[in-house]
Protein backbone atom coordinates (compact mmCIF):
# COMPACT_ATOMS: atom_id res chain seq x y z
CA UNK A 1 0.00 0.00 0.00
CA UNK A 2 1.17 3.54 -0.77
CA UNK A 3 1.09 6.11 2.08
CA UNK A 4 1.43 9.85 1.63
CA UNK A 5 2.13 12.26 4.46
CA UNK A 6 -0.18 15.31 4.86
CA UNK A 7 2.74 17.49 3.78
CA UNK A 8 3.29 15.48 0.59
CA UNK A 9 -0.44 15.62 -0.13
CA UNK A 10 -0.43 19.40 0.34
CA UNK A 11 2.57 19.69 -2.00
CA UNK A 12 0.78 17.59 -4.59
CA UNK A 13 -2.35 19.78 -4.46
CA UNK A 14 -0.34 22.99 -4.74
CA UNK A 15 1.67 21.61 -7.65
CA UNK A 16 -1.52 20.54 -9.41
CA UNK A 17 -2.81 24.12 -8.95
CA UNK A 18 0.27 25.40 -10.78
CA UNK A 19 2.49 26.49 -7.86
CA UNK A 20 6.05 26.12 -9.12
CA UNK A 21 7.67 26.05 -5.67
CA UNK A 22 5.00 23.75 -4.24
CA UNK A 23 7.26 22.06 -1.69
CA UNK A 24 8.47 25.36 -0.20
CA UNK A 25 4.95 26.74 -0.20
CA UNK A 26 3.58 23.66 1.55
CA UNK A 27 6.19 24.08 4.27
CA UNK A 28 5.53 27.82 4.69
CA UNK A 29 1.76 27.33 4.82
CA UNK A 30 2.06 24.51 7.38
CA UNK A 31 4.47 26.52 9.53
CA UNK A 32 2.30 29.65 9.43
CA UNK A 33 -1.16 28.11 9.99
CA UNK A 34 -2.06 27.83 13.69
CA UNK A 35 -4.31 24.81 13.24
CA UNK A 36 -5.69 22.43 10.65
CA UNK A 37 -8.74 24.56 9.92
CA UNK A 38 -6.59 27.59 9.22
CA UNK A 39 -4.28 25.53 7.01
CA UNK A 40 -7.30 24.35 5.01
CA UNK A 41 -8.52 27.94 4.56
CA UNK A 42 -5.08 29.18 3.56
CA UNK A 43 -4.59 26.33 1.10
CA UNK A 44 -7.95 27.03 -0.52
CA UNK A 45 -7.05 30.71 -0.99
CA UNK A 46 -3.67 29.83 -2.45
CA UNK A 47 -5.22 27.31 -4.84
CA UNK A 48 -7.74 29.99 -5.87
CA UNK A 49 -4.77 32.08 -7.02
CA UNK A 50 -4.11 34.54 -4.20
CA UNK A 51 -0.44 35.51 -3.89
CA UNK A 52 1.38 33.34 -1.35
CA UNK A 53 2.36 36.43 0.66
CA UNK A 54 -1.28 37.56 1.00
CA UNK A 55 -2.23 34.09 2.19
CA UNK A 56 0.64 33.87 4.69
CA UNK A 57 0.21 37.50 5.73
CA UNK A 58 3.91 38.19 5.38
CA UNK A 59 6.80 38.30 2.93
CA UNK A 60 10.50 37.95 3.46
CA UNK A 61 12.33 41.07 2.34
CA UNK A 62 16.00 41.87 2.92
CA UNK A 63 16.07 39.38 5.78
CA UNK A 64 13.03 40.96 7.47
CA UNK A 65 9.56 39.50 7.87
CA UNK A 66 7.24 42.17 6.45
CA UNK A 67 3.50 42.04 7.15
CA UNK A 68 1.54 42.09 3.88
CA UNK A 69 -2.17 42.85 4.18
CA UNK A 70 -4.61 41.72 1.49
CA UNK A 71 -4.83 44.30 -1.28
CA UNK A 72 -1.37 45.74 -0.61
CA UNK A 73 1.48 45.40 -3.12
CA UNK A 74 3.74 42.44 -2.28
CA UNK A 75 7.37 43.58 -1.87
CA UNK A 76 9.55 41.92 -4.53
CA UNK A 77 12.98 40.47 -3.85
CA UNK A 78 14.33 42.54 -6.76
CA UNK A 79 13.63 45.70 -4.75
CA UNK A 80 16.27 44.68 -2.20
CA UNK A 81 18.72 46.20 -4.70
CA UNK A 82 17.03 49.60 -4.31
CA UNK A 83 17.57 49.32 -0.56
CA UNK A 84 21.22 48.34 -1.02
CA UNK A 85 21.86 51.33 -3.30
CA UNK A 86 20.08 53.66 -0.87
CA UNK A 87 22.06 52.38 2.12
CA UNK A 88 25.35 52.67 0.23
CA UNK A 89 24.70 56.34 -0.55
CA UNK A 90 23.17 57.35 2.79
CA UNK A 91 24.95 60.05 4.80
CA UNK A 92 26.47 59.24 8.18
CA UNK A 93 24.65 61.51 10.66
CA UNK A 94 21.96 59.98 12.83
CA UNK A 95 19.64 62.86 12.01
CA UNK A 96 19.63 62.16 8.25
CA UNK A 97 16.13 62.47 6.81
CA UNK A 98 14.96 59.37 4.92
CA UNK A 99 11.69 59.35 2.99
CA UNK A 100 10.02 56.40 1.26
CA UNK A 101 7.31 57.55 -1.15
CA UNK A 102 4.87 55.00 -2.62
CA UNK A 103 5.76 52.92 0.44
CA UNK A 104 3.20 50.08 0.08
CA UNK A 105 3.89 47.76 3.03
CA UNK A 106 6.79 49.98 4.08
CA UNK A 107 9.29 47.25 3.18
CA UNK A 108 11.83 49.60 1.58
CA UNK A 109 11.90 52.01 4.51
CA UNK A 110 12.02 49.20 7.07
CA UNK A 111 14.93 47.51 5.31
CA UNK A 112 16.79 50.79 4.77
CA UNK A 113 16.47 51.72 8.43
CA UNK A 114 17.66 48.24 9.43
CA UNK A 115 20.64 48.50 7.03
CA UNK A 116 21.57 51.82 8.64
CA UNK A 117 21.40 50.34 12.13
CA UNK A 118 18.29 52.36 12.98
CA UNK A 119 20.01 55.72 12.27
CA UNK A 120 17.92 58.42 10.62
CA UNK A 121 14.50 60.03 10.76
CA UNK A 122 12.31 57.93 8.48
CA UNK A 123 9.03 59.02 6.92
CA UNK A 124 6.91 56.89 4.60
CA UNK A 125 3.86 57.76 2.53
CA UNK A 126 1.32 56.19 0.20
CA UNK A 127 -1.97 57.17 -1.40
CA UNK A 128 -3.74 53.94 -0.44
CA UNK A 129 -5.12 53.82 3.13
CA UNK A 130 -4.60 50.02 3.27
CA UNK A 131 -0.91 50.50 2.46
CA UNK A 132 -0.56 53.22 5.11
CA UNK A 133 -2.13 50.94 7.75
CA UNK A 134 0.17 48.09 6.73
CA UNK A 135 3.26 50.33 6.75
CA UNK A 136 2.40 51.50 10.28
CA UNK A 137 2.61 47.86 11.37
CA UNK A 138 5.97 47.31 9.69
CA UNK A 139 7.86 50.50 10.46
CA UNK A 140 9.56 51.06 13.80
CA UNK A 141 8.76 54.79 13.64
CA UNK A 142 6.09 56.97 15.27
CA UNK A 143 2.66 56.58 13.64
CA UNK A 144 2.72 60.21 12.54
CA UNK A 145 5.77 59.48 10.38
CA UNK A 146 3.60 57.35 8.08
CA UNK A 147 1.55 59.67 5.91
CA UNK A 148 -1.36 59.25 3.51
CA UNK A 149 -1.61 61.31 0.36
CA UNK A 150 -0.57 61.94 -3.21
CA UNK A 151 3.25 61.74 -3.55
CA UNK A 152 4.95 64.71 -1.80
CA UNK A 153 1.62 66.30 -0.83
CA UNK A 154 1.46 63.66 1.92
CA UNK A 155 4.61 64.96 3.63
CA UNK A 156 4.85 67.63 6.32
CA UNK A 157 6.14 70.86 4.82
CA UNK A 158 9.05 70.97 7.28
CA UNK A 159 10.74 68.20 5.25
CA UNK A 160 10.91 70.39 2.12
CA UNK A 161 14.54 70.86 1.07
CA UNK A 162 15.74 68.52 3.86
CA UNK A 163 15.47 64.97 2.46
CA UNK A 164 18.84 63.18 2.32
CA UNK A 165 17.62 59.86 0.91
CA UNK A 166 14.36 59.66 -1.05
CA UNK A 167 13.31 56.19 -2.19
CA UNK A 168 10.29 55.94 -4.48
CA UNK A 169 9.40 52.58 -5.98
CA UNK A 170 6.67 54.14 -8.10
CA UNK A 171 4.34 51.98 -10.21
CA UNK A 172 6.07 51.57 -13.59
CA UNK A 173 4.13 49.04 -15.67
CA UNK A 174 2.85 50.64 -18.90
CA UNK A 175 -0.97 50.52 -18.88
CA UNK A 176 -1.14 48.36 -22.01
CA UNK A 177 1.15 45.71 -20.41
CA UNK A 178 -1.06 45.16 -17.34
CA UNK A 179 -3.12 42.35 -18.96
CA UNK A 180 0.13 40.40 -19.48
CA UNK A 181 1.21 40.47 -15.83
CA UNK A 182 1.01 37.20 -13.89
CA UNK A 183 -2.59 36.77 -12.63
CA UNK A 184 -1.42 37.03 -9.02
CA UNK A 185 -0.40 40.65 -9.64
CA UNK A 186 -3.11 41.48 -12.17
CA UNK A 187 -5.99 40.12 -10.12
CA UNK A 188 -4.85 40.63 -6.51
CA UNK A 189 -2.70 43.74 -6.37
CA UNK A 190 -4.42 47.11 -6.66
CA UNK A 191 -4.21 48.66 -10.10
CA UNK A 192 -2.78 51.99 -8.83
CA UNK A 193 0.15 50.02 -7.34
CA UNK A 194 1.10 48.73 -10.80
CA UNK A 195 -0.09 51.17 -13.45
CA UNK A 196 2.55 53.69 -14.51
CA UNK A 197 0.46 55.32 -17.25
CA UNK A 198 0.84 55.05 -21.03
CA UNK A 199 4.65 54.63 -21.05
CA UNK A 200 4.99 53.51 -17.42
CA UNK A 201 6.82 56.69 -16.48
CA UNK A 202 3.96 59.01 -15.51
CA UNK A 203 4.52 58.75 -11.75
CA UNK A 204 8.28 58.99 -12.13
CA UNK A 205 7.86 62.25 -14.08
CA UNK A 206 5.84 63.73 -11.24
CA UNK A 207 8.33 62.56 -8.59
CA UNK A 208 11.32 63.83 -10.57
CA UNK A 209 9.74 67.24 -11.19
CA UNK A 210 9.18 67.85 -7.47
CA UNK A 211 12.26 66.07 -6.09
CA UNK A 212 14.76 68.98 -6.41
CA UNK A 213 12.49 71.06 -4.19
CA UNK A 214 12.26 68.36 -1.48
CA UNK A 215 15.81 66.98 -1.54
CA UNK A 216 18.53 68.51 0.61
CA UNK A 217 21.53 69.78 -1.36
CA UNK A 218 23.50 66.60 -2.10
CA UNK A 219 20.42 64.48 -1.30
CA UNK A 220 19.52 61.55 -3.57
CA UNK A 221 16.38 60.18 -5.17
CA UNK A 222 16.46 56.42 -5.81
CA UNK A 223 13.90 54.61 -7.90
CA UNK A 224 13.50 51.20 -9.50
CA UNK A 225 12.74 50.74 -13.18
CA UNK A 226 12.96 48.05 -15.85
CA UNK A 227 15.99 47.68 -18.12
CA UNK A 228 13.72 48.56 -21.06
CA UNK A 229 12.68 51.85 -19.46
CA UNK A 230 16.06 52.76 -17.95
CA UNK A 231 17.29 55.18 -20.61
CA UNK A 232 14.02 57.13 -20.82
CA UNK A 233 13.72 57.16 -17.02
CA UNK A 234 17.30 58.43 -16.63
CA UNK A 235 16.53 61.26 -19.05
CA UNK A 236 13.56 62.29 -16.91
CA UNK A 237 15.79 62.57 -13.81
CA UNK A 238 18.52 64.43 -15.71
CA UNK A 239 15.96 66.85 -17.20
CA UNK A 240 14.81 67.62 -13.66
CA UNK A 241 18.36 68.81 -12.93
CA UNK A 242 19.52 65.75 -10.98
CA UNK A 243 22.96 64.14 -11.41
CA UNK A 244 21.82 60.78 -12.67
CA UNK A 245 23.31 57.28 -12.64
CA UNK A 246 21.94 53.84 -13.52
CA UNK A 247 22.95 50.73 -11.51
CA UNK A 248 22.01 47.16 -12.26
CA UNK A 249 22.05 43.85 -10.41
CA UNK A 250 21.85 41.06 -13.00
CA UNK A 251 21.22 38.42 -10.34
CA UNK A 252 18.01 40.12 -9.17
CA UNK A 253 17.33 41.57 -12.67
CA UNK A 254 17.07 44.91 -10.96
CA UNK A 255 17.70 48.37 -12.35
CA UNK A 256 17.97 51.37 -10.05
CA UNK A 257 18.26 55.02 -10.97
CA UNK A 258 19.84 57.51 -8.64
CA UNK A 259 19.45 61.25 -9.06
CA UNK A 260 21.43 63.58 -6.82
CA UNK A 261 20.52 67.18 -6.21
CA UNK A 262 23.74 69.10 -6.88
CA UNK A 263 25.25 71.09 -4.01
CA UNK A 264 25.48 74.82 -4.64
CA UNK A 265 29.00 75.83 -5.74
C1 LIG B 1 5.04 49.33 -6.96
S1 LIG B 1 4.24 49.63 -5.43
C2 LIG B 1 5.66 49.77 -4.36
C3 LIG B 1 5.37 49.50 -2.90
C4 LIG B 1 6.62 49.40 -2.01
N1 LIG B 1 7.45 50.58 -2.07
C5 LIG B 1 7.45 48.19 -2.40
O1 LIG B 1 8.50 48.36 -3.04
O2 LIG B 1 7.06 47.08 -2.05
C6 LIG B 1 3.71 51.29 -5.67
C7 LIG B 1 2.94 51.96 -4.52
O3 LIG B 1 2.66 53.32 -4.91
C8 LIG B 1 1.41 53.71 -4.38
N2 LIG B 1 0.93 54.85 -5.17
C9 LIG B 1 0.42 54.84 -6.42
N3 LIG B 1 0.13 56.11 -6.82
C10 LIG B 1 0.48 56.93 -5.79
C11 LIG B 1 0.44 58.34 -5.58
N4 LIG B 1 -0.03 59.17 -6.53
N5 LIG B 1 0.89 58.83 -4.40
C12 LIG B 1 1.36 58.00 -3.44
N6 LIG B 1 1.43 56.66 -3.57
C13 LIG B 1 1.00 56.13 -4.73
C14 LIG B 1 0.57 52.46 -4.48
O4 LIG B 1 -0.51 52.54 -3.57
C15 LIG B 1 1.61 51.36 -4.15
O5 LIG B 1 1.58 51.08 -2.77
UniProtKB/TrEMBL annotation:
One of its GO terms (molecular function) is peptide chain release factor N(5)-glutamine methyltransferase activity. It catalyses: L-glutaminyl-[peptide chain release factor] + S-adenosyl-L-methionine = N(5)-methyl-L-glutaminyl-[peptide chain release factor] + S-adenosyl-L-homocysteine + H(+). Residues 66-171 form the Methyltransferase small domain. Gene3D superfamilies: DNA helicase RuvA subunit, C-terminal domain, Vaccinia Virus protein VP39. Signal peptide: none annotated. It comes from the Bacteria. GO terms for biological process: methylation. Keywords: Methyltransferase, S-adenosyl-L-methionine, Transferase. SUPFAM superfamilies: S-adenosyl-L-methionine-dependent methyltransferases (SSF53335). InterPro entries: HemK-like (IPR004556), MeTrfrase_put (IPR022446), N5-glutamine_MTase (IPR050320), SAM-dependent_MTases_sf (IPR029063), Small_mtfrase_dom (IPR007848). Coiled coil: none annotated. It is an enzyme of class 2 (transferase). Its EC number is 2.1.1.297. NCBIfam families: hemK_fam (TIGR00536), PrmC_rel_meth (TIGR03704). This is peptide chain release factor N(5)-glutamine methyltransferase.
Amino acid sequence: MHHTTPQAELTRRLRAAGCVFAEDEARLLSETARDAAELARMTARRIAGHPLEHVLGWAEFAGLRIAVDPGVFVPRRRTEFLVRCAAAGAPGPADAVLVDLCCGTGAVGAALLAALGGRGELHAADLDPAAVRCARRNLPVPGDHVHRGDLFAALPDRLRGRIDVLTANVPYVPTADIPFLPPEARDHEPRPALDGGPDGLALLRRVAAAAPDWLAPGGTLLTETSSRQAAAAARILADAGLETAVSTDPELSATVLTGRRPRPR
